[in-house]
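Sequence design from tokenized structure. All designs in this work follow the same two-part layout: the structure record, then the generated sequence. An example of the structure record is given first.
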């Protein structure tokens, strides 16, 4: 057992540090920094080398360097923008320093004959080499401090706290750190030994003040044991916080849903297909969870079209056959409707009643539905997040199925438990992701959940052939539509726009619709977009499914939930603007029937290197997990999980992409710590995530 004593640095209020007055304290608090320890864990995000002076003649464009020189002339130039140019020289050459922002007082300092030391990036201008807005100090040689003995850290900051202030603050806490018992090493010694990690003290000293013999390039790669150790500890703290969250939820009891099978057997008999082996396996994993009196917390992943819906239906049936209710929640109305259709088709023949609830349903209809839910007249409730408003009271809710488009925050997951059945029991939770998530990312972001993967597609699926075509060959593509439709097949045309505005998206779709109607007069063409009423969309989709239209022009609303096996061609406009996951999801709408299907990615020149690479990946593979991995590499975890705005998976040192290799070990060691060193879990979370309120409270 490690003895947890309150170490000094955690107790020191920032205000007692030199240079921190009440105003500075407020600014620090904005960054979540209150104690000496918090400052110690505010880590640099890059470094500079200010350890030696570079002779002017050796300067290269785009290099950052420290120079010392003599001021020879200062003048104000009024070409284009007003700027102040200071010409300086050392024994090897001349250099211009250029300032766009300067005060008269500042100008007075630049006296000919004085010495200046400055650090900045060198650029090539028409007048030769120059530095724009370097950091500088003017004086005599004796005024300049000794050259840096370590690499110089650059800290993330907020307005009003400069880098000099950060360096002074960290200098103070680092010198405290050098003393005994200032900071508690939380990782057990045998673990450090096993992983060959340095001590926390060494690691922090290293990242705040890296020695001069390390290259900036290596530092950036962050594979030094000191950096790895901190990344490891941060990931570990994150992992533990999710485990704590899970444990908190699982302290509650859940109804044990004994599996009476009768409904499941009937459903399987009625289905026009057999479950794949992967579906069977996942159904079994869920079944085992549901039979236990602890709330299930399980994530089901599977590629687009792998058949997650029917797996969810099997779980729902288990809840119902035990006499309870189940709720199915989808991120969009369209997707919720698709679930409604499937569930009606599958469950109503078994005598099960299904309710539909969205924010669109109002007045008397709403009251009636709410009453039916509260009195157990309906067993399955399908809808959008409207399901979880306060006014919705379930009579016997035992299972919640959440179809996620983007990662559903931990907050929301906690809120769901409020919707429990009576007598203090909370419902089981089944989370399904709309698109696959790379394994390492799932390991980290969904550490509070057990995971099931449907790693097999139903038999007979033909991979979609993808081609990438320049928009200036649009005519050819339109001709191709004609041929496909004449052979009895149907086509999607997906319009995308960079603007977030739905109005603009719809306008673009309307325009394309008009153009295509003119170009293809003999085809029946429909238009669907997000501004249509749910009912209107439904009518159009049904008609398209029945074959009443050849071509469906759509915005990305069709991304989810549409199933038309006869559609065998999809054209996606401005494909370069979409993320890989979204393209994959869209493309998954074709290739659902017997025919070989095609997807045309139309792009607009010029293409960035990154966009080129993304399109090439779409052409190379149909494997959603592989695509997700590439998406992670090209766009980062925030985009892939949809947490960019919420910042939920933001790390200080760790980088999910770079540090993927650490994750399996992090996961394993988090378990060991919880079992054997429970006392350090809380301080570890506090140290790294103390700022994030949500974790602090659980
Ligand atoms: P997703 O995993 O993308 O949500 P769906 O649940 O919508 O996939 O299933 C895609 C299609 O495959 C649906 O039409 C569904 O009925 C069908 N399907 C599901 N499982 C099987 C299976 N085992 N064999 C054949 N078709 C299946
Ligand atoms: Mg689905």
């Amino acid at each position: 057992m490690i003895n947890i004593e309150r170490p000094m640095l955690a107790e020191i209020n920032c205000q007692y540090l030199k240079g921190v007055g009440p105003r500075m304290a407020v600014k620090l608090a904005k960054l979540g920094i209150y104690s000496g320890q918090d400052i110690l864990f505010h880590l640099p995000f890059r470094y500079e080398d200010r350890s030696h002076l570079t002779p002017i003649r050796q300067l290269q464009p785009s290099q950052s360097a420290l120079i010392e020189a003599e001021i020879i002339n200062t003048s104000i130039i009024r070409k284009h923008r007003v700027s102040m140019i200071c010409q300086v020289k050392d024994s090897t050459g001349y250099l211009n320093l250029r300032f766009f922002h300067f005060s008269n007082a500042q100008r007075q300092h630049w006296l000919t004959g004085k010495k200046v030391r400055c650090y900045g990036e060198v650029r090539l201008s028409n007048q030769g080499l120059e530095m724009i807005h370097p950091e500088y100090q003017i004086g005599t040689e004796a005024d300049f401090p000794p050259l840096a003995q370590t690499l110089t850290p650059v800290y993330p900051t907020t307005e009003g706290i400069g880098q000099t202030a950060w360096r002074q603050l960290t200098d103070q806490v680092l010198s405290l750190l050098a003393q005994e018992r200032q900071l508690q090493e939380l990782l057990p010694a045998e673990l450090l030994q096993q992983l060959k990690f340095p001590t926390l003290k060494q690691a922090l000293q290293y990242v705040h003040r890296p020695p001069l013999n390390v290259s900036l390039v290596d530092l950036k790669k962050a594979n030094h044991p000191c950096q790895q150790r901190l990344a490891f500890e941060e990931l570990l703290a994150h992992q533990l916080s999710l485990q704590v969250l899970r444990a908190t939820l699982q302290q509650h009891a859940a109804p044990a849903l004994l599996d009476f099978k009768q409904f499941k057997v009937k459903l399987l008999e009625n289905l026009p297909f057999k479950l794949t082996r992967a579906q069977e396996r996942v159904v079994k994993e869920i079944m085992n969870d549901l039979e236990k009196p602890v709330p299930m917390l399980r994530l089901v992943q599977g590629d687009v079209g792998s058949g997650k819906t029917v797996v969810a239906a099997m779980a729902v049936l288990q809840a119902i056959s035990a006499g309870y209710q189940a709720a199915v929640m989808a991120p969009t109305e369209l997707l919720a409707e698709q679930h409604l259709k499937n569930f009606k088709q599958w469950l109503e023949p078994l005598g099960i009643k299904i309710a539909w609830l969205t924010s669109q349903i109002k007045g008397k209809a709403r009251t009636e539905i709410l009453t039916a839910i509260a009195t157990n007249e309906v067993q399955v409730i399908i809808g959008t997040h409207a399901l979880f408003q306060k006014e919705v009271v379930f009579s016997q809710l035992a299972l919640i199925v959440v179809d996620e488009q983007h990662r559903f925050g931990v907050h929301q997951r906690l809120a769901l438990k409020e919707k429990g059945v009576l007598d203090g029991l909370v419902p089981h939770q089944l989370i399904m992701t709309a698109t696959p998530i790379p394994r390492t990312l799932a390991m980290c972001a969904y550490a509070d959940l057990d995971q099931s993967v449907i790693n097999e597609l139903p038999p007979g699926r033909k991979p979609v052939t993808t081609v990438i075509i320049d928009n200036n060959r649009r005519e050819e593509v339109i001709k191709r539509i004609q041929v496909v439709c004449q052979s009895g097949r149907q086509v999607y045309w997906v319009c995308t726009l960079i603007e977030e505005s739905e109005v603009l998206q719809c306008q673009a779709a309307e325009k394309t619709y008009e153009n295509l109607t003119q170009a293809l007069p003999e085809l029946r063409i429909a238009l669907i977009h997000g501004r249509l009423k749910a009912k209107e969309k439904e009518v159009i989709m049904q008609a398209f499914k029945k074959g009443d239209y050849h071509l469906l022009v759509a915005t990305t609303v069709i991304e989810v939930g549409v199933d038309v096996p006869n559609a065998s061609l999809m054209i996606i406009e401005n494909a370069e603007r979409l993320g890989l996951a979204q393209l994959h999801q869209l493309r998954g709408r074709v290739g659902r029937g017997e025919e070989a299907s095609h997807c045309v990615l139309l792009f607009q020149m010029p293409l960035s290197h990154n966009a080129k690479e993304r399109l090439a990946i779409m052409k190379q593979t149909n494997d959603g997990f592989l695509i997700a991995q590439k998406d992670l590499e090209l766009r980062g975890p925030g985009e892939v999980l949809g947490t960019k705005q919420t910042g939920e998976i933001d790390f200080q040192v760790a980088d999910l992409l770079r540090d993927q290799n650490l994750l399996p070990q992090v996961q394993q060691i988090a378990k060991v710590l919880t079992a054997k060193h429970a006392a350090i879990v809380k301080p570890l979370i506090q140290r790294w995530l103390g700022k994030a309120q949500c974790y602090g409270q659980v």
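The radius of gyration is 31 Å. We note this feature because it recurs in several other targets discussed in the main text.
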